[in-house]
Amino acid sequence: MMRGKNSGFTLVLSVAVIAILLYASVGLLSIAVMERQTAVKYHAGIQTLQIADSGVQKALFCLGADDGDGCDGSYGESYAGEAGIELGSGTFTTDITGSGDERELTSIGVIPGGYSTVLKVKLTRTPSAYTDTVFDYALMVTNGATISNNFTVENGPVYSAADIECGNNAEMEGDIFVSKTGGTIDNCDIGGEAHADRIIDSDIAGDCYYNDLWDKSDCGGTLYSGQPTPEARNLPMFDEPFWQAQAEAGGTISGDYEPTDGSVLGPKKIDGDLTLGNNVDVTLTGPVWITGSLYMTNNSTLTLDSSFGALSTVVMVGGLIDVVNNAAFHGSGTAGSYILLYTSSTSDPAIEIRNNAGTAVYLAPYGGVKIWNNAGAVAIAAKYASLEQDGAISYDELGLPSDLQLRIETDGTDWEITPGTWRKL
Known about the structure:
By secondary structure, the protein is α/β, with parallel strands linked by helices. The chain has three domains: 33-127 and 414-424; 131-150 and 235-407, no CATH class; 162-232, no CATH class. 17% of the residues lie in helices and 39% in strands. Strand 2 (90-99) and strand 3 form a beta hairpin. The longest helix has 62 residues, at 2-63.
């Protein structure tokens, strides 16, 4: 009898042990399954994150691309993303919204099994590099200036290394400096200060500084005699080979070029003349190098693309710059943005602006600038200047910064992820 009771107890104990072991096995199996699921999700998360990030990197590339190769035909400003792009065993889909220099990007990485990761970032176009060409004076000449009747220099200072003689009713609203030893300011109406060794027959609103001759003149400020000759100045610096390379990087047009209305130009080298005919409007998107001459006729315009913001660009010419009959130059529309017209010509004039034409920044370090018959300029720096018949230099009025910031065209993408905006949803 005792043995039977022990056998029953043993059976019950065995069943209990088996049940405990079975329960433990089920628990361990559940843990293993959960760990497996966690490992799969973790691996899937890494994989889809990498795929989604690849979508971000491709978007950065395509926004800055110069052609549609590898970007589904869409690139640059018009790139808005792509759908279902295969990468390994998964795909990514990108969507870009916004305009101008700021965009928002959503990139979704997907792999089989329904796993996905969504990334959102903001993208910013990085500021373009620029270099400065300094225009401290509204008018700056080294070898001679003729200022005829009714010409006006509005507000900006004037510098000359030669004598300055003004025609009747010509007005210089800023300061004048003549750095020539024994140099003369003659018959000028000056709204600021006058600085020269000799001042003759002039009306000066500010202080008057002279060395050895003061004759038939009126000084509205304090008169200072025995003053040193003003310090000599150099014309604005301009790196011609650098800017030629910048323009040439955009390709070359062989022979004379006459664009149609609405054309876009730059960066570009033109191996010949550039002619803008009647009522032709051209938008500049970079520096232009013209080996021949620039001709602009009735109501034609060169306008800097709005993407330049407060920056400016250069049109370089090897020959004559001839601008007539209401032809005009315009910056980007943002204050401080202008087109700099540069010529390496030694002719006088090398730049001729007439008949209500203008208005730009003109640099002719080896030749002359002639402005007449109601034409205008923002600033002039030249070897010679002939300013005639009711023209005007509107230096301060148009807000010219002394350090004209000229944008450098850079290679590759100029887009980047805006710091602090990367997030996983």
